Amino acid sequence: MNKINEIALSIIAMLMSFLLVACQQDATETESLSSSESLKAERRQNEGSAPIGSEDFSDASNGKSVSERSDLSDAFRKIPRPEAIDFSDEEILVEARINIASNDRELRLQAVADLDLNDANDLALLENVLLSDPSSEVREEVVMHLADGAPDKTAPLLMKALNDSNSDVVISALDWLSTMDVSDKPSLIAAFKQIAATHPDQEVREAAEGALDMMD
Q1: Name one Pfam family in it (predicted).
Q2: Of 51, 107, 185, 215, which residue is least crowded by CB atoms under 10 Å?
Q3: Contact between residue 99 and residue 111 where contact means Cβ atoms under 8 Å apart
């Protein structure tokens, strides 16, 4: 019986010793952690408040040389930034497409000059103005604007201007068509000859003859 008691006391003593050592280790780790936090707090106080996430960034950059971090920064700077979008041209077109039907002649004149000669819908608008606008000045503006476009797209519209009731519009169309590289020259020459022979306005007939000379 005494032997058993001795063994039990020995085991209890060993357990007490183990618990004592474990408590000492916990105390040491707690003290170390507290000391580390105190040092960080003191460093922040001395250097000013660190930005949020600065410690994470510092940890992420550990192990990278200054040169590597510099290269990374340069790479980010070289990433293309989206260019500012300039809506002014589109706004002008939208306004022109509205004003082309305005009752104000000045607004229609400006709208004609702003329409896009490369846009099929805008060309249709110009054709409609050329054939129906009550102002000969606006119709002549259409002729001059069409002369700036690609001949294959605008020459057919300019030929329609040869039938305009206003002599100035017809003369303007004759002058511009005679300088353009028109694919269907036979049809154009035939139209010029008819105008030179039959138009009631002598000035128009002379302009047609001059246009024919330009095309020889």
Answers
A1: HEAT_2
A2: 51
A3: yes
